C-alpha cells in the first residue's frame, strides 16, 4: 500500500491508547451524577408517598362498594365484630349473605396494616380508615389518616 492509504487508515482507525478519559474527567462526571441524584431522589420519593395515599383511597372506595353490596343483600352492614372478613366469609348468623363481595382477600393498606372498620360509625353508617404510614392517629403528609368520610 502506498503512504497515502496508510494516512487515510490512520485517520479513520486511530491506534488504541490515544483516546479514553482521564481520572479528572471521570471524577467530574461522578460529581455531576451525584448532584443530579441528590436533586431527583427526594422528588421521586415524595411521589411514591403520594401514590401510596392514592392507593389507600382507591382501596377504601372499593371496600365501601363491597360493603354497600353486602348491605343490599342482608339489609345491614357487617358489625364491627364481624369486620371486613364478612365480605369474603359468610357470618354464621347471616342467611341472606350473597358473597363473596371481594375477588381476593381483604387487602392491607399500602403500608402493610389492616384497615380499621367500625360499625356503627362516628362519621357515617360505618367508618373505614387507615392511620397512614406511621400507623398512628392523626399526622400529616404520608402519615395522615386516609378515611371514608
TrEMBL record:
Main location, first listed in the record: membrane
Calcium found in the keyword field: no
Protein's UniProt name: Type II secretion system core protein G
Transmembrane helix keyword on record: yes
Pfam families in the cross-refs: N_methyl, T2SSG
Membrane topology listed for this record: Single-pass membrane protein
Signal peptide range in chain numbering: none
GO cellular component assignments: plasma membrane; type II protein secretion system complex
Coiled coil: none
PANTHER family noted in UniProt: GENERAL SECRETION PATHWAY PROTEIN G (PTHR30093), TYPE II SECRETION SYSTEM CORE PROTEIN G (PTHR30093:SF44)
Organism superkingdom: Bacteria
Subcellular location: Cell inner membrane
Amino acid at each position: 500500500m502506498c503512504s497515502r492509504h496508510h494516512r487515510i487508515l490512520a485517520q479513520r482507525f486511530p491506534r488504541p491508547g490515544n483516546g479514553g478519559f482521564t481520572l479528572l474527567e471521570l471524577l467530574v462526571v461522578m460529581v455531576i451524577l451525584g448532584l443530579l441524584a441528590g436533586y431527583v431522589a427526594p422528588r421521586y420519593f415524595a411521589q411514591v408517598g403520594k401514590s401510596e395515599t392514592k392507593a389507600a383511597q382507591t382501596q377504601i372506595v372499593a371496600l365501601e362498594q363491597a360493603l354497600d353490596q353486602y348491605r343490599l343483600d342482608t339489609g345491614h352492614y357487617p358489625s364491627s365484630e364481624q369486620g371486613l372478613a364478612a365480605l369474603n366469609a359468610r357470618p354464621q348468623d347471616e342467611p341472606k349473605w350473597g358473597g363473596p363481595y371481594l375477588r381476593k382477600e381483604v387487602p392491607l393498606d399500602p403500608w402493610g396494616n389492616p384497615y380499621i372498620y367500625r360499625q356503627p360509625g362516628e362519621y357515617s353508617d360505618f367508618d373505614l380508615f387507615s392511620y397512614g404510614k406511621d400507623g398512628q392517629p392523626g399526622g400529616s403528609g404520608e402519615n395522615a389518616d386516609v378515611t371514608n368520610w
